[in-house]
Amino acid sequence: MSRHVGPTRSAVTVPSGAYCDLAVTLDTAAGRFFCKGCQVDGPTDWLHRNEARVNRWLPPAAPRLRWTVEQSGWLLLGFDHVPGRHPDLAPGSPDLAPLADLLAGLAHTLTPAPPVPIQRFTYRWRDLIAPELVDGDTLLHTDMTPRNFLLGDRLHLVDWSSPARGAAWIDAAFVVLRLVRAGHEPVDAEMWAAQIPAFAAAPGDSVTAFAAALVRLWERKQRTAPGPHHGPLLAAARRWSAYRSRLPAYTHGA
User: Fold this and answer.
1) Rounded distance, CA 197 to CA 104, Å?
2) What is the C-alpha to C-alpha distance for residues 190 and 11, in angstroms, rounded to an integer?
3) Confidence at 32, pLDDT banded by 50, 70, 90
4) Residue of 213, 231, 210 whose CA lies nearest to 222
């Protein structure tokens, strides 16, 4: 690693989440970097390789990958360091405006999807939803947890380890779930998402089916691998799906 950044003056561990064996901020002779890593051929190896593969195609909202090191049984990725805080998704938060702008820009820039091998969303959700409802040609992030957004002088979206190719509105729909989880009424969360052209143009039956699929997804997660955040997300998915089920069948758009 030193051949990429020179001597390292300090390394500060940062919360790594569920998919890293190592996550540190490095202060080096070449500047500050965020380094994440895993054991080669370990359970998260494929996620790190996903992220390394798509990074060159991502817009500036994604920190640039500067180096990859595979040595002594470890795979390490070094990114530009992005200072910032996680956005507040509560009703009335000023952070919601830059979030909408970011998602609108990503959907536009990443459609059509760049020529990089990525999993189709239709395959990933093959047992949750009819494929024609979520098929598309946009490069999606798919993990819209607030901890993957960093707000400093601008809003960044990090951790592109679960990319997929699918309908352009899907990432915005994932954020709708997070807004309901944060205290928004479903109707208000959808009004916010309607600022994003891809979501505003989404077929209503597709969004309704997506909300129902989220219920099945979080029921399965809660059943197979219970976690403290699963219950609240399941409750939010149920609220959103119940709201969608009450809309007139002839409603078009999201």
Assistant:
1) 7
2) 42
3) confident
4) 231
Q: Which token pair is 88?
A: 């507040």
Confidence of residue 225 (pLDDT cuts 50, 70, 90): confident
Whether the CB-CB separation of 160 and 62 falls below 8 Å is answered with yes
pLDDT at 5 over 70: no
Q: Distance from CA of residue 82 to its chain's centroid?
A: 16
> Half-sphere exposure of residue 111, counting CA atoms within 13 Å on the CB side?
19
Contacts of 37 (CB under 8 A, 6+ apart): 20, 21, 22, 23, 48, 74, 75, 76, 77
- pTM for this entry: 0.92
Residue type, 177: L
pLDDT score recorded for residue 136 = 98
Strands 65-71, 149-151: pairing is unpaired
Which value, to the nearest 10 degrees, does the dihedral of the CA atoms of residues 148, 151, 155, 156 take? -40
Q: How far apart are CA 223 and CA 171, in angstroms?
A: 24
Q: How many helices (H) and strands (E) does the chain have?
A: 9, 9
- Report, as an integer, the average pLDDT of 202-231: 94
